[in-house]
Amino acid sequence: MTPRSSRSRSGALATRRRSRERQPALDYNSLRSLSYHLGKCFWQNIEQHHPDADSLRLAPDVIGQWKQRIATKDKTVTGPDGRRTSAKVERLNHRDTLTQVRAFYLDIAQWALEEPGRWGPWVAPSPVRANELEHRKLQRRRKARVDARTRERLPVLPILVRSVDQRRRDAAATLEAARHTSPGEVFTAAGQQLVRAVVPHGTAGRIWAEDPDTGKRRDLGLEDERAFWTWAVVEVLRATGIRIEELLELSHHSLVQYRLPTTGELVPLLQIVPSKTDTERLLLVSPELADVLSAIICRARNSSGAVPLVRSYDRRECEWQAPAPLLFQRRISGEDRAFTDETVRNMLDQALIATGLTDTIGDPLRYTPHDFRRLFITDAILNGLPPHIAQVIAGHQEINVTLGYKAVYPEEAIQAHMAFLARRRSLRPSEEYRVPTDDEWQEFLGHFERRKVSIGACGRAFGTPCIHEHACVRCPMLWPDPTQRDRLVEIRDNLLAWIAEAEREGWLGEVEGLQVSLAGAEDKLAQMDRRSPGGTAIDLGMPRIAAAQPTQAEGTASLTQSLDDQQ
């Protein structure tokens, strides 16, 4: 063993030991995620770029470079000219790796207290600080991205539903027309003209057709099967909001009945087996969903009328499930096989390509199976379903998780504001909201024309009287015009002369009123001074660059001389 391999083996051994320590308390998917973050994203990355690292006690420069590498990833971008270039983009989930690495170091420190001989040699300071894992801002950004994704896909969901339903109908009509057509003959179905292909050595039961314009040969049975199951996936996901693993685990036994104790009516229910949260739940089957499930069962039945028993492979637990009459199964090479999540995603991608829908940047719009779950919860709550009921239907353990799935629409704020205005208007006289007459409209316009006075404009509201009996200098609602400053100064000087005359003649009653007007005039002059640009600009001159760095005393003398020159 080389020295390099022995040094790098120490960190790998620590990560392997930590995974084995956590293995009894984790399922396979969580254990795989833990191994991915610690083994691949952390230690393998350190080994590739820093082969001299011989322990978990990493140097600060090694830690800094590692954090920069995992924060970005390479993305291939195709330009308008068709050239493909590689660009660095932010890795959205790189903080998940930081969280696992910090927990890795803290776990070792805790285990060293319990078993010093075993874990003591591996203890080292954590390269990830606690403040680097602040997720509030990131969670808000993620919520904004998810909400934008939901708002982009919810309005076009009816287009996708109509498209997959039309493709299913067209594929079924084309296949049925081909069955009644002899090989080599031309037939028309679903608005297209095809020729029943002659396949001497074709597989029994498969029907082929050729396009006379392009000569392309098509397997009509395969097209019908793909169109049907794509329609079935879209309908079940959008009507139930279940997870992809729950969809693939639906079986003939999932359909149960419940008799209402009040009316005795039989209600169909769909039983969702425990999956992510290990919680079983029952969903009400609507008439539309019942038609879809009925069509699926009819398609899945074999010649004996029963749904075949098939085994499915759980990719999250890496184990084969017991045979069950799964609804989502198909026959491949004479064998009944269950659908996989990859097959479902591919069918959704092909369905979206057929619709021609694009996102905000012009790329083809994509739907993931989990998008239907967000759309279902958002649409249900927007249509009045209480959030705690949506939580039960979705199978969430916390209501905050359910509210996180719900996208916020500006329409909600608009509707709430309009409802508030309607309630407020209902409390006021209805005649205030009638159509104004011509005289009332002219009176309203004339109000603004009559607000202009000699020294400014009056700001009183429409329909209110003048509280100072047109003594505008006293009124706080007067907005003085700076261009009329000379007139206001003349009014102030006249008031001073009147006050002096009143005091000289002994008209004490006049003095009090004139002083109120004088105070108002001086206040209006002060308002003009505050609004007018005051002061003069001072030219500080251009700074002089000295040949050498001056001392503090020389700098003080230079600044003093500069100020003297300016004065």
UniProtKB/TrEMBL annotation:
The keyword Calcium does not apply. SUPFAM superfamilies: DNA breaking-rejoining enzymes. InterPro entries: DNA_brk_join_enz (IPR011010), Integrase-like_cat_sf (IPR013762), Integrase_catalytic (IPR002104), Tyrosine_recombinase_XerCD (IPR050090). Residues 1-24, 530-567 are annotated as: Disordered. It comes from the Bacteria. PANTHER family: PHAGE INTEGRASE-RELATED, PROPHAGE INTEGRASE INTD-RELATED. This is Site-specific integrase. The lineage of its organism: Bacteria, Bacillati, Actinomycetota, Actinomycetes, Kitasatosporales.
